[in-house]
Every structure is written in structure tokens, then in C-alpha cells.
Amino acid sequence: MKPTLKPAPRVRIRILISLLTGALIGALTAGVALAVGEAVAVFTGPPSAPVYAVGEAAVNLTPAPVKEWAIAHFGEHDKQLLITGILAMLTVIALLAGIAALRRFWLGAAFVALFGAIGVAAAVSQPESGPSWALPSIIGALIAIGALRLLVRFHRRTGAAGQSAEAEHAPGTGRPGSGRREFIETAAVLAVGSAAVGFGANLISDRRYNVSAARAAVRIPKPTYPAPPLPAGVHPNVAGLSSFFTDSDDFYRVDTDLVLPEVNPDSWTLRIHGMVDRPTEISFGELLRQPLYEHDLTVSCVSDPVGGPYVGNARWIGASVPALLRAAGVRTGADQLIAGSVDGMTIGTPLGSVLDGRKALLAVAMNGQPLPIAHGFPARMLIPGFYGYASACKWVTDLHVTTFAAEQAYWVRRGYAEIGTMKTQSRIDVPMPFAHLAAGSVMVAGIAWATDRGISAVQVQIDDGPWRQATLAASDNPDTWRQWTYDWPATPGTHSIQVRAADDSGTYQTGVQASPYPSGASGYESLVVIVA
After folding, report:
1. CB 308 within 8 A of CB 362
2. Cα separation, 388 vs 375, whole angstroms
3. Among 130-134, 420-424, 526-530, whose mean pLDDT is lowest?
4. Which residues, including other chains, have CB under 8 Å from residue 416's CB and lie 6 or more apart?
5. At CB < 8 A and 24+ separation, what contacts does 427-431 make?
6. Residues of the chain above pLDDT 90, percent
7. How far, CA to CA in Å, does 26 sit from each of 102, 118, 140, 145?
8. How many CB atoms are located within 10 Å of the residue 407 CB?
9. For the segment 10-61, what is each residue's pLDDT rounded down to a tens digit?
10. Quick one: which of 225, 13, 49, 20 has its CA closest to 136?
11. What's the angle, vertex CA 82, arms to CA 80 and CA 87, rounded to 5?
12. What is the SS3 assignment for 436?
């Protein structure tokens, strides 16, 4: 006699199958919504696609300490992590929609509508958005609800929702098994179609909006004021020491953009307005016809921890920001310059520092080439003496002369210091932490920087011993990092090494530990090595 399943296990199996089927329906519905959203975003712009719109909104709503934590733990992969998290959230909503729709279709449709509403709210909340940015999420949700309806109807015709086998023979239900085939065929078509539409939309968007060809066609004129030749000895020949100039491909990138702004130089304009006598607007061609300066400058992010990677040194070419402002006629009482980006970012700098003689540039070239897209093509701001959040606006299109009392820039509204003065910093590049070294002469080397002030001394301390003077490499200019070496007579054992630097006033960086938020990290970099 064959054993029979008890009623309770049969019920549990039926419930499990129903849940898995609902989850499959929800996943397919979400795939339709996202694919349609990507397709519509071909016409409204890549940042309006639901996933990216929600991601940008999440970036803007994330508290600054959480942002710093993400950068510290995930570095430049924080954006990929955010996208993964958003997709996970949308997946949960989609699975709930599919499961709910098997019981009450209207409830599943409500989940899909919520899916779309989140996308719409996120899209229209972006500073650079327009009404059309709502369309990818709206149209995606509507078509997804239609797909959900189709899948639920075909599934119910299979008899898997508790219908008896005889129900498949009832009038209007078609041949036995036809509902199951229709469900499987529809699911397969939706899965393959969504993947094809999403891939195709991304391919078309990349070709339609990509400005790589326009960038390649840009010819940067020879600078009117070229940088002087590098002094001999700016870069000691030590294996592992950072190159004096950071390769553009290796230069750090920290910004809020999940989709890089693609700005065509032919349509780019710079608007200078606010507290000026002559509001001005200039094209990219007119910018290139300005007297151009070539200048070496180290740029650092406020999110850089002590000894961190978010610092780079490059040779830039650009027009003088002070000259542009003076041509517009700065009015008395103005004390802040707010640079605005095409992506809605705003960055505020003390106006007096912009006009005090330092090389404040509207840069168009980096390391001899037009700016990379990831670093602000076609133009970005660079002002020595400040962290990037207070000086280095990428994809800049707007210069607003104003006051600190009248307007706060993006990061200041999120709790960062109003004046983002760069602190004196130093870093050990060689040796690596926990390196195993041979006793005898060990070369310790690294970089130090304090832009607009320069570096006058670097000292190294072994264990708890006295601070010893390191040998400074030649100085390029006060706005670049300065490299240093220290020949350490290493003895066997486990040792700690730490470093500190002094700016040109002779003031050493503080040893007091502070996190990057809200005004930049401080403290000495310290590492441990093992000498055999």
C-alpha cells in the first residue's frame, strides 16, 4: 500500500509553491518596470531612470556621518553598494507585489504603484530635474501593472491557485494545460524581453549621451602662462613612493553622482551673476580664448582619513577665476563665491581667498589633456588652500557671487564646516603597514601637503623616540605636495613609525585625532613594521 501525504504537509507545500510563484511574478513585474523605465529614460535622460533617480535621492538624504562611514569602509565602491541596496529594496517590494496579487490583484497593483511613486518622488526631487523626469517611473509602473495582471490571470488558469483539475475544462478556460503553457510562455517572454529592452536602452543611452567623441575633438590651446619646469629632485627614486604627478586614470573620485554628467562642450555655458555689476555668460569656445594658466596643484577630499588615498597631484590648465569675476564687476559686501554644477551640486568658497592672488582656476585640462569626464569635463573649479567640497566644483556651469549670510552651499547644509580650509597633512607611502623588513638601512618615504601654504619640514618618529628630520625633496610650488625620505637604521623587533609635517609658517600638523566630518581629518599617520 502506497503511503499518502498528510493534509498538513500538503497544505504547507501548496503554500510554499504559491509563495514562490508569487515571488516569480513579482520579480518579472519589477523587471518590466525597470526595463521600461530605462527605455523611457533614453528620451528624458539617464539620471531620470528609476534606479538612478532613487539612488541620487538616497545620496542627498544620507546624513553626512553615514556618508563618511561608507567612504571609509567601501571607498570609491560606495556607489555600487548603494545601487545594490536600492535594487534589494525594490526587489522586496516586487516580491511582496507578486505574492499579494495572487490573493488580491488590487493589492499587488498597489505595491507596483508604490514602486512607481518612489521613483517619481526621487526623480522630481533632483535639483536639475524637469517634469519629464517623472515619466520613466510612471510609464514603467503602468506597463508593469499590465504585466502583473497578465501573469496573475494566466496563473489562475493553471489551477495552481487552488482550482480543481476540472476547472480547466470549464467553458472559457481553453484546453487542459493551456493556462500553464500561457503562464510559462508569458513569463519567458517578459524575462527575455525585459533583459533585451534594458540592455538595448542602456546601449542607446550610452551612445546618445556620451561625450567622449566631443571631448576627443577638443584642442586645448597652449597656455599663455605655462608652468615653470619642474625642479630637479622633486621625486626621490624610491620604489613604492607615489608618482609626483598622479595619472588621470588613478586620480581619486569622490562625488554624489551615480551617473556621470555628460556635458557637450558645444552647448556648455558659464553664467556669472549675483552681486556683480555686469552679469555675464560665456561659451566654452570663449573660455578657451581667455588667457590660460598652467599650474600644478594638489587636490584633497575632506573625506580623506589620515594617511588615506583621496589626494592627488596634477598639472592643470585653466582660465583665471579672479579675472572672470573682476570683468563682471564684484560688488562691495560680497564674501562668498558659490560654484554650481550641472548636476545641482553647489560649492562655496570665501570670495576674499579667490581674489587674494592665489592661482584660482576654471580648469579645462588635466595632465596635458582635456579634463576626463569623471573629473569635470568640460570645466571645473580649482582653488588652492581648500578641500574639494569647498573649492573644486566639477562640471561647473554657474558662478554666483553672494554672501555666507544669504546662501549655504550643498555640504554646509549637511553640517560640514562653512570654511573648508585644508589642514596640513602627511602620509607614509613606504614601507607598507606590517611589512617584514631586514635589519639595517630602511628607506621610509611619503608625501606631505598644505596647499597655498607649502611644506617647510617633515619629521619621522620611530617608536617613542625623538622626532627626526626627514629629507625634503625639491619643492615645485606651495600648492603641490612635497615628497620626503628618511633613512632609518632599523634594528630587529616590532616598531611603529609615524610622521608629521609643518607648513611654511613652521606650524606642525596637530597630533589630535579627528574624523573627516565636519572639517577634515587630523592626527599623525602611524604604522607598524616587523624587522628581522
Report:
1. no
2. 12
3. 130-134
4. 64, 302, 389, 517, 518, 519
5. 427/307, 427/308, 427/311, 427/499, 427/525, 428/307, 428/497, 428/498, 428/499, 428/525, 428/527, 429/240, 429/241, 429/242, 430/238, 430/239, 430/240, 430/241, 431/240, 431/497, 431/527, 431/529
6. 73
7. 10, 17, 14, 10
8. 15
9. 777 777 777 888 889 988 998 999 999 999 999 999 999 998 888 888 877 7
10. 49
11. 95
12. strand
| Burial of residue 75, with CB atoms counted within 10 A of its CB: 0-12 exposed, 13-18 middle, 19 or more buried | middle
Among 70, 74, 51, 53, residue whose Cα is nearest residue 62: 70
Residue 405 has pLDDT above 80, yes or no: yes
Among candidate residues 9, 66, 40, the one with its CA nearest the CA of residue 132: 40
CA distances from 201 to 34, 41, 84, 343 (A): 11, 8, 20, 22
Sequence length of the chain is 532
- State CA 370 to chain mean position distance: 20
- The grid cell for 330 is 564684484
**Contact between 223 and 317 (Cβ < 8 Å):** yes
Q: How far apart are CA 406 and CA 461, in angstroms?
A: 47
Position 170 pLDDT exceeds 90: no
Among 48-62, 184-198, 353-367, 391-405, the least confident range:
48-62
CA 467, chain centre distance (Å)? 39
Question: Looking at the predicted structure, is the pLDDT value of residue 168 above 60?
Answer: no
DSSP, res 167:
G
β-partners of residue 448 are 426, 482
Angstrom distances, CA of residue 304 to CA of 69, 184, 387:
11, 52, 10
The type of residue at 356 is: D
CB atoms within 10 A of CB 4: 7
Separation CA 46–CA 132 (nearest Å)? 12
Cα distances (Å, whole numbers) of residue 286 to 236, 282, 289, 382, 440 = 41, 6, 5, 19, 59
Q: Which residues pair with 201 in a beta bridge?
A: none
Distance, in Å, from the CA atom of 513 to the CA atom of 524, rounded to the nearest integer, reads 8
Those residues whose C-beta lies under 8 Å from the C-beta of residue 461, and which sit 6 or more positions away, are 467, 468, 497, 498, 499, 500
d(CA 477, CA 355): 19
Contacts of 191 (CB under 8 A, 6+ apart): 28, 31
Cα 238 to chain centroid distance, Å, stands at: 32
3-class state of residue 368 by DSSP: coil
For 323, residues 6+ apart whose C-beta sits below 8 A from its C-beta are 290, 291
- The enclosing H or E element of 9 equals helix 7-44
